[in-house]
Amino acid sequence: MSIDYVVKSAEKIKNMEVRGAGRIAKFCAKVLMEYAMEIKKNFDEEMKKAAEILLNTRPTAVSLYNSIYYVMDYSGESDEEKRESLVKRAKEFIEWVDTAQKEIGRIGSRRIKSGSTILTHCNSASALSVIKEAYRKGKDIEVFATESRPRYQGHLTAKELSAEGIPVTLIVDSAVRYFIREIDYVIVGADAITVNGSLVNKIGTSQIALIAKEARVPFMVAAETYKFSPKTLLGESIVIEERDPAEVAPEELRSLVKIRNPAFDITPRHYIDLIITEIGAIPPEMAYLVIKERLGYRLLGEDELKLSVHHYD
Ligand code: RUB
């Protein structure tokens, strides 16, 4: 296996064959682990190269950054010891993803009353874990899924939930306010949570939060603790990815007008009622504590590990 394997894997993240913050994080840990198992010499250098390639794929999902830093924080004298330590850390991270999403389902589902209708946006494994678990517990629920233009991740959500037997209504993104009176809860996932408790998630999330607040519908976020951003502790802002205009309009229109295609937006904390994490359902104001206690300053180690991240601004 050569570095090509890492480059091809990075390509899958860029073109969204592998997408969703949790899946991306788990995938990176797996790619680093597989590459580490094959390296014959110059372990540190080779791993650093691989980590940088993966880091420079999509800039917004903090879980990608946290996953790579967690795995790359290996120790040991010889290459063999380093490999063993890295593989152990990668397995720990993968286990963290799997157990956190399950636990979020268990904790979040307790908040859902039978007979309610939930609105979700995009396609979040953690948000869907809450919904599926509530349904598996026998609660009579229904879901409204937004289509999530321009990549239509809402179609994935609709298919995934209807495969479980959950009744789903698919709506266009701009119909949220029209239907809000039929909604009892909004549940979305997260690409990042900042130190002040703001949410970074799929473009359109902040408009939904605004509408939910106006209608007094509880707005909940399902986010594993590795979605919290240690870098925001130092005042660094989250970079919002802008994607190819071709995702939005055909060439005949692109040649006439400018097109902007941000993939994510920011929802300020006062629109968020609760963040459901694997360590409990917390108010957004607790974000600082999660970063301090769960992630630690160790994860700030961009300089320490000397990896270079291109900032897409
Ligand atoms: C996906 C998205 C999801 C979060 C959380 O965006 O915004 O809501 O990543 O998902 P994209 P999960 O499709 O552009 O990657 O809970 O699965 O981590």
From TrEMBL:
A single GO BP: L-methionine salvage from methylthioadenosine
Gene3D superfamilies in alphabetical order: translation initiation factor eif-2b, domain 1, Translation initiation factor eif-2b, domain 2
Annotated catalytic residues: C122 (proton acceptor), D191 (proton donor)
Enzyme Commission designation: 5.3.1.29
Keywords recorded for this protein, A-Z: Carbohydrate metabolism, Isomerase
Molecular function GO terms recorded: ribose 1,5-bisphosphate isomerase activity; S-methyl-5-thioribose-1-phosphate isomerase activity
Isomerase recorded as keyword: yes
InterPro entries referenced in this protein's UniProt entry, alphabetically: IF-2B-related, IF_2B-like_C, Initiation_fac_2B_a/b/d, M1Pi_N, NagB/RpiA_transferase-like, R15Pi
Superkingdom of this protein's organism: Archaea
Keyword Isomerase: yes
Reaction(s) catalysed by this chain's protein: alpha-D-ribose 1,5-bisphosphate = D-ribulose 1,5-bisphosphate
Coiled coil: none
Broad EC category: isomerase
Annotated binding of substrate, by residue: R19, G20, A21, G22, R58, N201, K202, K227
Family: Belongs to the eIF-2B alpha/beta/delta subunits family. R15P isomerase subfamily.
Function: Catalyzes the isomerization of ribose 1,5-bisphosphate (R15P) to ribulose 1,5-bisphosphate (RuBP), the CO(2) acceptor and substrate for RubisCO. Functions in an archaeal AMP degradation pathway, together with AMP phosphorylase and RubisCO.
More info: Reaction proceeds via a cis-phosphoenolate intermediate.
Name of the molecule in the record: Ribose 1,5-bisphosphate isomerase
Species name: Archaeoglobus sulfaticallidus PM70-1
